[in-house]
Amino acid sequence: MMAGPLPLIIPPLAMAPIVYFLRRWPTAASLSASVTALVTAGLCLRLPLDDPAYVLGRELALDHPSRMVVVFILVMAAILFLCAWFTSRSPSLRQAPDTAFVPFGLAILGLLSGAATMRLFLFAALLLEIAAIVAVFAIQGDQPSPERVEGQGSSRAGLRYLVMTALALPCFLIAAWLFELHARNPHNVALAEPAVTLLALGFAILLGAVPFQVWLPAMAVEAPPMVTAFLLGTVNPVLLLLLTSLFQRHPWLIADNQAFQLLTVGGLLTALVGGLLALGQQDFGRLLAYAALSDLGCLLLGLGTASIEGLTATALQLVNRSLALVLASMGLAILRRYASSDAFADLGNVAQRMPLVSAGLLAGLLSLAGFPLTGGFASRWPIYRLVYQENHLYAIALFLSGGAAALGCWRGLLALLRSEATKNPVPGKQATCCVKNETPSTSSGQALRSTQGDKLGSDAHPELEREPIATAAVMLILTLLCLALGLFPQLFLPPILKSVEGFTFLGSPR
Amino acid sequence: MPTLSEVIARLSFLTASPAVAGLVVTASLIIVVRDWRVSLAALLTQYLLVGFLLTRLITPEVAMVKTLVGALICLILYLTARRVHWGRRRSKDEPSPLPAGWEVFPVGLPFRLLAVVLTGLMASSLLNSYPLSEVPRDIGFACYWLALIGLLAMILTAEPLKAGLGLLTFMAGFELFYAALESSLSVVGFLGIVNLFMALAIAYLASAREVELVGEQRQ
Q1: Residue A352 lies in domain
Q2: B118 with B155: CB under 8 angstroms?
Q3: Cβ A262 vs Cβ A254: under 8 Å
Q4: What is the total count of domains within chain A?
Q5: Which of A22-26, A29-33, A85-89, B73-77 shows the lowest per-residue confidence on average (mean pLDDT)?
Q6: Residue A507's beta-bridge partner residues?
Q7: Residue from A133, A215, A219 whose CB has the most chain B CBs within 10 Å, to mutate
């Protein structure tokens, strides 16, 4: 019997319940999940998995692009599981680490591998939906204790994600039905417009593109940062793989270029809104969400150029984006854990006490904004050039959106460098406080924020004064990698070029 | 003992307009009434009525499986609502940060009634403008009605159980339409799994929300 891609799907799914029961021991849970993801990635690279497998009569097959995407998300997940372990190591024993993400992350990996290898789009969409529902448990994390403080653990982010992803499912299922109709009657060109519209709606909702981005900032604020990085870093590559595979298998969808026009307009809108909103944020959680949104717009514009060069730049951008997300999320997680807040108003003195974490956080965010010398710029530059060839104004708008996001990071840097925490934060602004079971009992939110804002500056917790060496070392390595990708972007080009050459529906830039 | 086909034949009067009228009532109850027992009873009845309508589009056995999945979902939500004491009126010793009833719906009864009426008009208008040619006209109205009421519930509340009822209502409306397009058993099975997972996620979020409210009260 041919196993096909099943060895990529079964191990993560089988290990998920085991890791769930290991949650009380975060080291064991994170390490076993990480090893599972890495071993599965190794199997994907080493085993001859080219033969298709059939489950319930549906074909699962692994071509070169899907193999590369599956390996990428598995390696990315392995890194994130390790980072989750690093960031969950508590400065005090009173804090219980939130490790729900690890087992649910493994289950999501198995489902995403299934979606990436499923030939029939209908079932790929159903697997994606199940993965999205499982993600709700990871977003919500462990049940919050009654003593927890405002911010993390709220059900709002999970509910928004559940609702939005559920709305994408009907779009995909009806689009899949239209594909079947077209297969029966290939000359019916009238089916292209509704199919493209439904696909655009479904993918925009799942990617969190404007105007369906409502779940993104809620998740960045309320979910553990590693979950945000995991979902953006693993789901988005699979979604973009499915989209390009659909264009490859159904060329009638792109016959009139409407799909690429939608990608261009949607991408531009997403980049502009993301950049402008990033500029005005007052905390690192939302800044991360909107910088990622601006970056997503750039990705969509890269795809919208409908060229091999554009797809190559987009794939490179996906790699850089994922690394930037890991870096920024790890910095954010450490900041929330040790400084008790990620609001600009509460972060005085942090840069002096946690220089490597602060530098890593900013490097990740600047890479998402496409700032020069970071990995994000190296992959954004070819997209700027391709978009400039099509429309000068679009390219300028894209550049400005990156600039606006970078300015938002600049404001974050100033907040980190300030010598004291602001005693009176912006009225109405909720600090994102995340230390569980450590909150002083107070009825005043402002007093609560001030107390926590002073934490790093006071001598109340002398053990929190400096960043832990191991965590700082990991941040340093990731920061150097991010900068190295900015200087040597060709490192990842050979596998990317090999993956995109199979997409024959693409030509030279329009 | 009568077979399933005989039972359905006896209840055939329920597979036409009375079922659609029942759906109008049950879906309205989900929006109008705050009490969780009434809302869950309305959802269960809604799944039964959708099951009756489905017998006109797919085989009775598959329609019954879908109804059973709906009943399981209601059981999950019932157990959750009982456990978290959903929508209970909090005592004076246990003050809520929100006005009475606002944890479920932050808008008043007149607004919700008006919204339901407008939703009905919108469903009727959509049916005239974009008729669903794959299903009979009355079922087309039921599809639009359920989907729109589901969306309305999701818009009106951020409370996981109530918004979850809206989400499940939306999915019921969509599946009623989709059953006419795709009758594959594997798709039916996958959609059942999706619905059950959704119910579990809603139950988990509702439990978390209750702990959140308790935390807010203590502060």
Answers
A1: 257-423+443-510
A2: no
A3: no
A4: 1
A5: A85-89
A6: A307
A7: A133
Identify all chain B residues contacting A175, using CB atoms and an 8 Å cutoff. Answer: none
pTM: 0.89
Ranges of H-type helices in A231-280: 236-249, 258-279
C-alpha distance across the termini of chain B, in Å:
60
The rounded distance, in Å, linking the Cα atoms of A295 and A401 is: 9
Asked if residues A288 and A365 have their Cβ atoms less than 8 Å apart, the reply is yes
Residue A437's region, left for phi above 0, alpha for psi from -120 to 50, else beta, is left
CA nearest to A28, candidates A18, A37, A39, A40:
A18
Characterize A489-508 residue by residue with b for buried, 16 or more Cβ atoms within 10 angstroms of its Cβ, and e for exposed. Answer: beebeebbeebbeeeeebee
Backbone φ/ψ region at B73: left (φ over 0), alpha (ψ -120 to 50), beta: alpha
Question: Which chain A residues contact residue B178 at CB under 8 A?
Answer: 170, 173-174, 177
Residue A449 lies in a domain: yes
State whether residue A461 is helix, strand or coil.
coil
| A508 occurs within a structural domain | yes
pLDDT, residue A459, reads: 44
What's the pLDDT tens digit per position in B17-27?
889 999 999 99
* Tokens, residue A412: 């974050």
A375 part of a folded domain: yes
How far is the C-alpha of A202 from the C-alpha of A187, rounded, in Å? 25
- The b/e string for A464-476 (b: 16+ C-beta within 10 A; e otherwise) is beebbeebbebbe
Rounded distance between C-alpha atoms, residue A356 and residue A266, angstroms: 36
Q: Closest CB to B197: pick one of A130, A154, A159.
A: A130
Residue A89: pLDDT over 80: no
Using CA atoms, how far apart are residues B33 and A202, in angstroms rounded to an integer? 32
Determine, yes or no, domain membership for A132. Answer: no
Nearest CB neighbour to A144, from listed B187, B194, B208:
B208
Residue ranges covered by each domain of chain B: 4-218
Looking at chain A, which residue has its C-alpha nearest residue B176?
Answer: A170
Sequence-separated (6 or more) residues with CB below 8 Å from residue A103: A16, A17, A19, A20, A23, A29, A33
Q: Please indicate whether, in this complex, the C-beta atoms of B182 and A159 are within 8 angstroms of each other.
A: no
